[in-house]
Amino acid sequence: QVQLVESGGGLVQPGGSLRLSCAASGSIFRIDKMAWYRQAPGNQRDLVASIRSGGGTTYADSVKGRFAISRDNAKNTVALLMNRLKPEDTAVYYCNVEVMTARYSLWTDYWGQGTQVSVSS
Q1: Fewer CB within 10 Å, N- or C-terminus of the chain?
Q2: pLDDT tier at 94 (50, 70, 90 boundaries)?
Q3: pLDDT value of position 1
């Protein structure tokens, strides 16, 4: 019903930058929170950054000052600009959105397929 398409992952050197993008499509009446999570091998999936519909943001302590999340409500997209990347940022990054599929429906949580970010010299 709702599809999330992620792009922008890849291999970069420490100190480099990447921009991740996620586009939502399908049966969407309204999107509330949009967020990025990441999961490294052997670890749980943790929140990296989130952004509310009005623009308010939250960040994990490990990425504050380096990452910036943004959204375009007209295009149903969310982006994550990652600067000064570190090897410990290496993980699969997942887009997450809370979607209302109809005017009086409940909020439903959707996930992207994940995109690999590798930071190595």
Answers
A1: C
A2: very high
A3: 85
Cα–chain center distance at 80: 6
Could you give the count of Cα atoms lying within 13 Å of 90 in the half-sphere of its Cβ? Answer: 12
CA distances from 13 to 24, 34, 63, 72 (A): 29, 27, 17, 29
Quick one: tokens of 47? 């929140």
Start-to-end CA distance of the chain, whole Å, equals 40
CA atoms of 56 and 115, how far apart (whole Å): 24
Helix (H) or strand (E) holding 91: strand 91-100
DSSP characters for 71-85? EETTTTEEEEEE-S-
- Judging by DSSP bridges, how do beta strands 57-59 and 46-51 pair with one another? antiparallel
